[in-house]
Amino acid sequence: MATFEEVLEKFKDMVWLVAIRFAPSFPKGLYDLEDVHQIALLALFNAYEGYDKNLSSFSTYAYTCINNALSLELQKVRAKKRMCPSQPVYLTEQEWDCHAVDDSITPVDELMVDKWAVNEILNRLTELPQAEQKLIYQVCVCGRSIRSVACEAGRPYSSVFKQIEKFKLKMKEELSYEM
Fold first, then answer.
1. Are residues 74 and 110 in the same domain?
2. What is the extent of the structural domain holding 150?
3. What are the φ/ψ torsions at residue 4 (nearest 5 degrees)?
4. 97 with 174, same domain?
5. Residue 17: inside a domain, yes or no?
6. Residue 88, domain member (yes or no)
7. Do residues 40 and 67 make contact, with C-beta atoms less than 8 angstroms apart?
8. What is the DSSP letter of 103?
9. CA-based end-to-end distance of the chain
10. Is the dihedral of CA 38, 39, 45, 48 positive or negative?
11. CB 164 within 8 A of CB 136
12. CATH (domain of 51)
């Protein structure tokens, strides 16, 4: 079989055409044509590495691999976009003062909105490791959803949820003794 450089030279037009066809489907500002082209080139290389002569022609196999790779990347981007809101939501001073929490931010029982409680949380946060501090601060103080914080941190929702619940339980126990 030919070297990859030869295959690349022969199929470069096909790679560009597929990349151009897929590029408008990717979110603007997140992927440009070059990024999509790079994914297509990697798919061509994987097709080259995994090709079995007993199957179909290489051009058909390569085209399918490139299409599948770009479709899979597009699915990942769309799934991540659904999971992660693009902008974090923070409570305004008025929301702090009135204890008014909009359901679009997060359910009321997932927020600690009392200023005194927030000060106690901030004092207790300094005792925790840096990574835990950030997660708990984002959820309990800033009012972000656990799902968006977990997504941003690249951690499973369940582990962040358990960590937040453990911290909240500890805070409830400690704060109830102080009152």
1. no
2. 93-178
3. -65, -35
4. yes
5. yes
6. no
7. no
8. T
9. 78
10. negative
11. yes
12. 1.10.1740
Q: Are 133 and 143 in contact (CB under 8 A)?
A: no
Count the alpha carbons within 13 Å of 72 in the hemisphere toward its beta carbon. 9
Q: How many residues does the chain have?
A: 179
Structure tokens of 27?
């979110």
- The span from the CA of 21 to the CA of 138, in Å, is 39
DSSP 114-178: -HHHHHHHHHHHTTS-HHHHHHHIIIIIT---HHHHHHHHT--HHHHHHHHHHHHHHHHHHHHHH
110 alpha-carbon distance from chain centroid: 21
Q: Please enumerate in sequence order all residues whose Cβ is within 8 A of that of 13, keeping only pairs 6 or more positions apart, or say none.
A: none
Q: Quote the DSSP letter at residue 27.
A: P
Structure tokens of 115?
A: 């200023």
Per-residue pLDDT of the chain (179 residues; tens, 9 = 90+): 688 899 999 999 999 999 999 888 887 777 888 889 999 999 999 999 988 888 778 899 999 999 999 999 988 887 776 555 444 444 454 444 443 334 344 444 444 445 666 677 677 778 888 878 888 877 776 777 888 888 888 888 888 888 888 887 887 777 665 54
Name residue, tokens 């972000």. Answer: 144
